[in-house]
């Protein structure tokens, strides 16, 4: 039976010599509150709503990320404000940032036209916002209760995005046009529905910037929705999350995206292999079959269209376009193999639209950039696996496996679209990376690390 309160949360933090504090104390403006607000803004507001006169880096959620980076840096000025204890993600983030800065410098040294220089500056700003979310999530969440609070908000917001997508698909009506906060402006028009397949089928984006991004972030959310179906404290809560889980999973295929289907299968596959007992596996298979059956009835032709997309092979124009880019990538890579041509400088309207994040990073960041991005994923996988092995409670193990699945999904979808160019996906990934660092800390065998808190004793 799942306990309402996690026993580790009652362990006090050593803040000064012979002085302890509770990690369960509530802060009105703490990391959890800011993260919750960031998730709401990221998923509820359309992706092309920005603060007036700013670029896409001026999305309200991204500006919060910038504030979190400044918050983390300022906290380093006084040891009483620092989350003490080791945190491997800090070093990984430093290496990632250095790789971007070196690539940025290499781009400047080769001489850039103004459009590429602006693109580099934009990329650097978004990178800082991204890393702010990673660092504050890893260092700022104080206990399991706050971590679960963030993930519950995430699941509910993903459910809202899924609902928007299902409404778009069912009624060919876009409610996202009405999701506007006063004071914000549209950076660009909302993405139109795109016809795909036969029988009048069309793709929908929810509140995301693209159909692929919509399906991918929802696929990442499915394991967490299932987590709260299994481990919520009350029957009503489990029923509510069951509805959310089905709704989120059902919204993935309506984007009519191979990437979304692959992401969903990967996320479920990780859970299936790592932590699900056979009973849960059977139950998930039955639920999955029921969802597919319902989609077959409600959306005739959808399953057939998705199947045809996977079987088309090189006859599919989107696949052939990706493979035709390899020669251009090889030419760019040969010119600047180590640091690339500069982050963000492969502008689609000038050069080519490279629908592969790993190749895009190779061209713009070089071998060092690819190594840094891969290192971030590998480090998060390692931290989540360590936390899963250390955990003694089934719910903790399940949550760590869900975090592991998000990294596996990120690695796979990076080969199918330029994932880090889409900020809803990128900042979801940032939060997942930070949470991997948080669960590593919460499960650490040394209590002084496990209960590390702001104001902790140095050492």
UniProtKB/TrEMBL annotation:
GO terms for molecular function: ligase activity. Signal peptide: none annotated. Pfam families: Wzy_C. The chain crosses the membrane at residues 26-45, 57-77, 89-109, 121-141, 153-173, 208-227, 239-256, 262-278, 285-303, 358-379, 399-417, 423-442. Residues 244-373 form the O-antigen ligase-related domain. Keywords: Ligase, Membrane, Transmembrane, Transmembrane helix. It is found in: Membrane. GO terms for cellular component: membrane. It is a multi-pass membrane protein. PANTHER family: LIPOPOLYSACCHARIDE BIOSYNTHESIS PROTEIN PA4999-RELATED, TEICHURONIC ACID BIOSYNTHESIS PROTEIN TUAE. This is O-antigen ligase. It comes from Micromonospora krabiensis.
